[in-house]
Write a structure and sequence with these properties.
5-stranded mixed sheet, about 170 residues
């Protein structure tokens, strides 16, 4: 079996760019990516303004409080320019009580698409989860985000639970 640390290094080498913990200097870059999370058709029960505001509020809380189970990362290109954001959370599995790693946020910066950055961040997330003994790697994706869904499916992700909503 290949050690998780080696897999992490291998995944970073394959995409030729480092993924490092986010710091205060990254906050503006991270907030500039909020609109990336809604650049596709949203469900009728959600407006773009509502979703963007919720994501911004969650990111502000994350970056302010730095919960011990939350891990924000920034992907850089070889020249040091920021190219992506990844937020991982360690959570308890509802069904088994075991540990899961949840990909809470994953965004590639405009102009950096199509270079394998999303795939590289998913490989990093998988190595991170394996290194911490997680049972599963999970994420949520809007039905209208066809590009992300295609990436996840091509990487072996499967639908496990579908969330439905009814506006009241």
């Amino acid at each position: 079996m290949i050690p998780a640390r080696f897999l992490f290094v291998l995944s970073v080498l394959l995409v030729c760019m480092p993924i490092r913990p986010a710091d205060v200097a990254d906050h503006a870059f991270i907030f500039d990516l909020v609109s990336r999370f809604t650049e596709f058709p949203l469900p009728a029960t959600r407006t773009r303004g509502m979703v963007d505001a919720g994501i911004r509020r969650d990111l502000e809380r994350l970056l302010r409080e730095r919960p011990p189970t939350s891990f924000p990362y920034v992907l850089e290109e070889e020249d040091g320019g920021r190219a992506g954001f990844l937020h991982l959370q360690l959570l308890e599995d509802f069904f088994t009580g075991g540990r899961n790693c949840h990909v809470s946020d994953l965004a590639v910066a405009p102009g950096h698409e199509g270079r394998g950055h999303g795939r590289g961040m998913l490989a990093f997330a998988e190595a991170f989860a394996r290194e911490r003994g997680c049972e599963r790697l999970t994420l949520s994706v809007f039905p209208g985000n066809a590009r992300a869904r295609a990436l996840y499916e091509s990487e072996g992700w499967e639908y496990e639970l579908l969330r439905m909503a009814k506006a009241l």
